[in-house]
Design goal:
The chain has 74 residues and is mainly alpha-helical. Helix content is 86%, strand content 0%. It has three helices and no strands. It has helices spanning 3-12, 17-28, 32-73. The longest helix is centred in the C-terminal third of the chain and has 42 residues, at 32-73.
Length: 74
């Protein structure tokens, strides 16, 4: 993989400038094990964000159901 592709993929994944800089430095230093470890951490962060978003959607679904129940009673 080229540095350009790494940076583009990190940017597309929502990685900030500091994260991109860190990954690029690991790549350029040839520390592939360190880079893989860092990328896995970034992935875990993304999964956590996804779970947080899902919890928000679940809460909204609950609110919709409860509101619909009240509307149906009227």
């Amino acid at each position: 993989m080229e540095v350009k592709a790494l940076i583009e993929n990190l940017t597309d994944s929502g990685c900030d400038a500091e994260g991109t800089r860190r990954a690029k430095a690991l790549y350029e230093a040839g520390d592939m094990d360190g880079l893989v470890k860092y990328l896995r951490k970034c992935r875990c962060d993304l999964v956590e964000e996804m779970h947080n978003s899902q919890r928000k959607v679940d809460r909204m679904d609950y609110l919709i159901r409860q509101t619909q129940k009240e509307a149906d009673k009227q």
